[in-house]
Amino acid sequence: MGGAGAALASMSLMGAARAEGTRPNFLVIMTDDQPYYTVPRTKSVVAMIRNLGTNFSPYAYVSTPICGPARATLLTGRWSHNTGLTKTAGAYQDLHASAYASDTIATRLKQAGYGTYFGGKYTNGYDGQSVPAGWDAWFGMVEPINRADSFLYRNSSRINRYDRTVYNETDVLRTNATRFVRNQEGSSVPWFAYVCPHAPHGPYYPAPRHAGEFTTMPLRDVPSIGEQELSDKPGWVQAEAPYTDAERQRHTGAYRGKLRELQEVDDMVRRLMDALADTGQLTNTYVFFLTDNGYLLGEHGLNEKNIPYEEASRTPFIVRGPHIRSGFESSVMVSHVDVPPTLLDLAGVSWSDLDGRSLVPVFSA
């Protein structure tokens, strides 16, 4: 009975979307190294997505909380231990050489008649030599992406260099992604846009308008920061003790850097949502907001990701869209692996061979 109810709910949601005449659009925004607890510091994300959508964040987790595997999982809809895409260094080269290079959420939606756009950080090691399969419009960051003087983006035909004293990498992405959204006005072709700002990954180069913010913001006041009793922790965690004032100072600086860079992400979210509204596309677009992995900033004395602590493995996971409950907090456990099945289900495309599950029944439950 429960399975039948879920199936009916799924059919109801998709049927309602199709009754409106078009298949839905998809905007997926994924940040880089964003601690889940920083979402309240992004006012537009809260006001324009979370408060008007469903928040899965209390029970949203990344199975392998580090860039390469997490991004491969979202692209493929498969666990990293099943794809073998488990590396971060050289992650793009591994993906490009695998069978999954031509079988991603982009290739499947493109085959189903969707227009596709990618902007931002695809995965670690992208060299800009080609555009990956499945993307009609492309604006990807090219390695090295952490240089202090400049950064690179490749469009469909060439690599362009941007001077950091003049340009901010998230603002450049915002302009390009917003242009894509606005250009879809009046089109009968549904679209999928995957927008991945490098922010708030360190080193931190915030936009000048936000560089002076959060100057006195302390680290979170939680028991795990500066804890003295570590006997219940693994030996490698115990070996990190004692937690020093110098470490706290470094972690505080990193936290402030993340918050500053998240403001430019928030500016981008506002512009994208405004573009959807201005062009009459908002009511037929599903918007997902999440991160590739979190980050420990002093919890248990660590400055890490890729470990099974809450701060590293928990992700923001917020969805707004047609017929999705507004201001609702879900207790359903979700992960990156569920995003491709959900999008394909909403698009009316088969997804049963993937490792994740569609969240469509949850949306309308």
Walk me through the structure.
- It is globular, with a radius of gyration of 20 Å.
- The model is unreliable at 1-10 and 16-20 (pLDDT under 50).
- The protein has helices at residues 2-19, 43-50, 67-76, 80-83, 91-96, 105-111, 169-183, 235-238, 245-278, 310-313, 339-347, 360-363; strands at residues 25-31, 54-55, 115-120, 137-142, 150-154, 159-163, 191-196, 285-291, 317-320, 328-329.
- The chain is of the alpha/beta class.
- The chain is 34% helix and 14% strand.
- The longest helix is centred in the last third of the chain and has 34 residues, at 245-278.
- The chain has a ten-stranded mixed sheet with strand order 6-5-4-3-7-1-8-9-2-10, sandwiched between helices.
- Strand 5 and strand 6 form a beta hairpin.
SSE order and pairing:
Layout: H1 2-19, E1 25-31, H2 43-50, E2 54-55, H3 67-76, H4 80-83, H5 91-96, H6 105-111, E3 115-120, E4 137-142, E5 150-154, E6 159-163, H7 169-183, E7 191-196, H8 235-238, H9 245-278, E8 285-291, H10 310-313, E9 317-320, E10 328-329, H11 339-347, H12 360-363
Parallel strand pairs: 1-7, 1-8, 2-10, 3-4, 3-7
Antiparallel strand pairs: 2-9, 4-5, 5-6, 8-9
Helix pairs in contact: 2-9, 7-9
Fraction in beta strands: 5-15%
The DSSP helix count reads 12
Percent helix, as a range, is 25-40%
- Note poorly predicted spans: 1-10, 16-20
What is the rounded Rg? 20 Å
Alpha-carbon distance between the two ends: 14 Å
Strand order within the widest sheet? 6-5-4-3-7-1-8-9-2-10
The biggest beta sheet, please? 10 strands, mixed
Number of strands: 10
Give me the secondary-structure category: alpha/beta
* Average of pLDDT: 93
